[in-house]
Automatic annotation (TrEMBL), chain A:
Keyword Transferase: no
PANTHER family linked to this entry: ABC TRANSPORTER PERIPLASMIC-BINDING PROTEIN YCJN-RELATED, ARABINOSE-BINDING PROTEIN-RELATED
InterPro entries from the UniProt entry: Bact_solute-bd_prot1 (IPR050490), SBP (IPR006059)
Annotated organism of origin: Mesorhizobium prunaredense
Highest taxon listed in the record's lineage: Bacteria
Identification of the protein by name: Extracellular solute-binding protein
Assigned keywords, A-Z: Periplasm, Signal, Transport
Automatic annotation (TrEMBL), chain B:
InterPro entries linked: MetI-like, MetI-like_sf
Membrane topology summary: Multi-pass membrane protein
Protein known as: ABC transmembrane type-1 domain-containing protein
Keywords: Cell membrane, Membrane, Transmembrane, Transmembrane helix, Transport
Keyword Cell inner membrane: no
UniProt organism field: Mesorhizobium prunaredense
Segments traversing the membrane: 32-59, 87-111, 123-146, 191-209, 221-241, 285-304
Lineage of origin: Bacteria, Pseudomonadati, Pseudomonadota, Alphaproteobacteria, Hyphomicrobiales
The family this protein is said to belong to: Belongs to the binding-protein-dependent transport system permease family.
Origin: domain of life: Bacteria
Single biological process term from Gene Ontology: transmembrane transport
Domain ABC transmembrane type-1: 89-303
CDD domains given in the database record: TM_PBP2 (cd06261)
Cellular localization per UniProt: Cell membrane
Length: 551, 313
């Protein structure tokens, strides 16, 4: 060691000794403290986890006033679950589920309002009845598919009950993500409760002859219109004078655009004839195009599985939609579903077609829940009429409850599904003001309690049933997201001025690419399966198949 | 201090405690222990996903197509030959270029204005930088509320100001929708430019300006001869940071236009999101991400090289 090195060494040593004498941190104390800190961090995980669980835990069972229709429906659901009838699906599910007491079911739900039902009502009630807890996993709509698949690939068994779009059933079934229910149904379910489904919805979870879930949300489009405007003598007279026809809810799409334009001409800027949710990415474009296109005789695919979009029906559909847009409220093409509701509820629009909550909101029923107070109070309560959308209305997506094939407690999960979708329980859930679950059982449409929710609730239910009788289903096959996205892009491009025919060609090319990617033969097989369902085309609606439900 | 003095002080402190075997090992490998958590985290959260994504881009990893067969360059081919991907890349470059340029000019102007002290400067500066702290999603939502018809007040205000009815579709009609996206971005990120450039301006020695003043240099000449050369490294830094951020533009587009009309407002990020998380073609999205990464890396390399070469005058 030379002098320079020695000086450096001594200086370093002196500094270390000084630090030691002052009690400053040494390597050893650092390692000790680092170890302690790591230990604390490791311990904090479960503690934080407990706190998170507590924060996200389901609420206490939230029940409505016992004298209200909802309160009575909830009491009836509880009674049916506890006392029977003994052959009822709710009672049988609860009795069988008691052996699974203590199990926690992990269930996916769409994030937001949809998840309030299992958190505030069905989850706590199920726990009270069976001792089984529920862990609600809130996911965005696309994640309800992608997470389910990802967890299946990982084999995590993260979910027991999946809330899925019916369009995903074939992919998830063939991919082994969901399990068939037939054996459980045979063992536990009252067949009469299966027959209680409206025929449009009953077959929705059926694929390749097996049942892959329970349908659980009747997302039927319907027409909501301002009765006071349609019945205004001056408007009726003016319409008669101009078109030599009675001013009434439209039966065709040409008539729809004509009436919308007439009301706009007569009443704008106070009221406009119509409004639509046409914003890119909001699903209004795909649903509207699909319902009008098929009502106009359009076929989705040819025999060779080439897209059928480029057709007279396609051009006619887009032209009708453009005419309706022109007759609508300014900014029509920028509206999403919520802003369309805002426009309708504040009285700026005379006609909309949308999901069933439109009717409940228009009657100011939904707004009774604080969770949904971002929707404006209805200024048109008591002035709204209900009609079937011209041609054939779209059943715009909906939800199936499906059993995860990786569930560690498949029987317990199934029993929850059976119970939650059983007639009395599902009725109470559909009546929750905030839950966005819409009637789908025949017993829902006939329910006196639901009919007493707001003054025109019976007409509302009757119209939803009539709509389902002639309703059309979204295509149920792999690649549905791709096909829908292409329609949305096509429509918004046309609204921005693109040529309809050229846009149809672009969309058709995208459809063909999707079909090629997924395999033409395979897609053809899926499409063939889909065509077997009532409501797959305008030629085989429930009504045309002779299965229409009359209330 | 003499060595004997140190030794006697150590003796006075008493014999050091005997180290256990583990403590001795820890003592020997102390430096590795220090970096180990960070290295493990980087390996787990960055390197592994990066390598996995590289694998995914060469196989079929599609939530709609069963199996993970090797497909070679098919996923890359799909992206390269997708006109939407090409458009989104072009739009990304165009939108980020224009936005950052405007933000730079405005940021510089504001920084030059704010460099001198005046009453209320602190308050104004605080207000100016508020947009920086707002989530881009909220910014998008706020501008949507301002611009969206029929509820947004923008067209009404313009109608009142211009004396004729204004019916612009700010989020659905070209070219207005691009203006809307640029305005939202500029509103949020001009303060970033301002803050960085102001820091650069305050670092310029004031005696340079005093000497220049004595030499009879006017303000414009001082800007060119003193401010600009001294501020150049900061300018490049601000432009680099901002450009890197701008090419990831997603949030405001997601909220304001949803990528539409058609695919007119698809940026690269929005395109990749749509392919990956709306259509579930994960391997195609991953291949696209790699291509996008390569383009980004080229831009970054150019900018960083230039940044490293820049030296203050």
């Amino acid at each position: 060691m030379n002098d320079h090195d020695k000086r450096d060494f001594l200086a370093g040593l002196e500094a270390e000794v000084d630090a030691l004498m002052r009690g400053e941190t040494t390597r050893r104390t650092f390692i000790t403290r680092f170890g302690q800190m790591t230990g604390m961090l490791a311990a904090s995980g479960p503690i934080l986890g407990l706190m998170t669980d507590w924060a996200l835990a389901q609420q206490k069972l939230e029940l409505a006033d016992a004298g209200s229709p909802l309160g009575q429906a909830q009491a009836a659901a509880m009674k049916a679950s506890m006392e029977g009838p003994a052959d009822g699906s709710a009672f049988r599910a609860v009795e069988a589920a008691k052996t699974h007491s203590g199990v926690t079911l992990n269930m996916t739900y769409e994030v937001g309002l949809q998840a309030l039902d299992p958190r505030n009502f069905s989850g706590p009630m199920w726990e009270q009845l069976t001792g089984m807890k529920s862990n609600v996993v809130e996911l965005s709509n696309p994640d309800q598919y992608s997470k389910a698949v990802a967890e299946h690939i990982a084999g995590s068994g993260a979910y027991d009950v999946l809330d899925i779009s019916p369009a995903w059933t074939p992919s998830l079934a063939d991919g082994g993500v969901i399990a068939p229910l037939d054996d459980y149904i045979a063992k536990y379910m009252n067949p009469a409760d299966l027959e209680d489904y409206h025929p449009l919805y009953k077959a929705l979870p059926t694929y390749k002859g097996k049942i892959w879930g329970f349908f659980d949300d009747g997302d039927m489009f319907a027409l909501y219109y301002r009765k006071d405007i349609f019945e205004d003598p001056k408007m009726v007279e003016a319409y008669q004078a101009k078109f030599n026809a009675k001013l009434a809810p439209p039966k065709t799409w040409e008539e729809y655009a004509q009436i919308a334009q007439f009301i706009t001409d007569q009443m704008a800027p106070n009221v406009y004839g119509a409004g639509h949710f046409r914003k890119a990415g909001s699903p209004g474009n795909q649903f509207d195009f699909l319902q009008q296109y098929r009502a106009n005789g359009g076929k989705l695919f040819g025999d060779d599985m080439k897209a059928g979009l480029v057709s007279d029906a396609g051009v006619k559909t887009l032209q009708n939609m453009i005419a309706a847009n022109a007759a609508s409220i300014p900014g029509n093409n920028e509206l999403d579903a919520v802003s369309l509701w805002a426009a309708f509820l504040t009285g700026k629009v005379a006609m909309i077609y949308s999901w069933p909550p439109s009717g409940r909101m228009a009657a100011n029923y939904s707004q009774s829940a604080t969770a949904i107070n971002f929707i404006p109070q209805s200024q048109i309560a008591g002035k709204v009429g209900y009609a079937v959308v011209p041609g054939n209305p779209e059943h715009a997506t909906g939800f199936n409850k499906a059993l995860s094939a990786d569930s560690a407690n498949p029987e317990a999960a199934y029993l929850f599904m059976q119970w939650v979708c059983s007639p009395p329980v599902s009725l109470a859930r559909c009546m929750l003001p905030y839950a966005l679950r819409d009637p789908y059982r025949i017993s829902h449409f006939k329910s006196e309690l639901y009919g007493a929710l707001f003054p025109s609730a019976k007409e509302y239910l009757s119209n939803l049933n009539s709509s389902a009788n002639v309703g059309l289903l979204d295509p149920i096959m792999p690649g549905a997201q791709d096909y829908f996205l292409s329609i949305d892009r096509m429509c918004t491009a046309v609204w921005a001025g693109a040529d309809p025919k050229a846009s149809l060609e672009t969309a058709a090319a995208e459809w063909n690419e999707t079909t090629d990617r997924l395999g033409v033969d395979s897609q053809k097989a899926f499409y063939t399966e889909f065509l077997k369902l009532p409501g797959a085309t305008a030629d085989n609606t429930v009504e045309k198949l002779g299965m229409a439900v009359t209330l | 201090m003499q060595p004997t003095a140190t030794i006697s002080r150590l003796k006075a402190a008493g014999a050091p405690p005997r180290l256990s075997g583990f403590a001795q090992w820890a003592d020997r490998h102390f430096k590795w222990l220090l970096v180990a958590p960070a290295v493990l985290l980087i390996l787990a959260l960055s390197v592994y996903p990066l390598l996995f994504s590289l694998v995914v881009s060469f196989i079929n990893y599609d939530f709609q197509v069963p199996g993970h067969a090797f497909v070679g360059l098919k996923n890359f081919e799909r992206v390269v030959f997708d006109p939407v991907a090409r458009w989104s890349l072009w739009l990304t470059a165009w939108l980020s270029g224009i936005s950052v340029a405007i933000e730079f000019v405005l940021g510089l102007l504001v920084a030059l204005t704010m460099v001198r002290s005046f009453p209320g400067r602190g308050v104004i500066m605080s207000i100016l930088i508020v947009p920086l702290f707002i989530s881009p999603v909220i910014v998008g939502q706020a501008w949507t509320l301002l611009l969206q018809r029929p509820f947004g007040p923008t067209n009404y205000i313009l109608t009142q100001l211009l004396g004729q009815e204004v019916t612009i579709g700010w989020m659905t009609e070209s070219p207005w929708l691009y203006f809307s996206l640029i305005i939202a971005d500029v509103w949020q990120w001009t303060p970033f430019m301002f803050v960085i450039l102001l820091a650069g301006l305050t670092a310029i020695p004031p005696n340079l300006y005093e000497a220049a003043e004595l030499d009879g240099v006017n303000a414009w000449q001082a800007f060119w001869a003193i401010t600009l050369p001294h501020l150049a490294p900061m300018m490049l830094l601000a432009l680099t940071f901002r450009l890197l951020d701008a090419i990831r533009m997603f949030d405001t587009i997601f909220i304001m236009t949803g990528g539409g009309p058609g695919t007119r407002t698809y940026t690269a990020s929005y395109y990749l999101y749509t392919v990956g998380f709306t259509q579930f073609h994960l391997s195609q999205a991953t291949a696209g991400s790699w291509l996008f990464l390569i383009f980004t890396a080229l831009v970054v390399m150019l900018l960083v090289r230039r940044l490293l070469k820049t030296e203050p005058v």
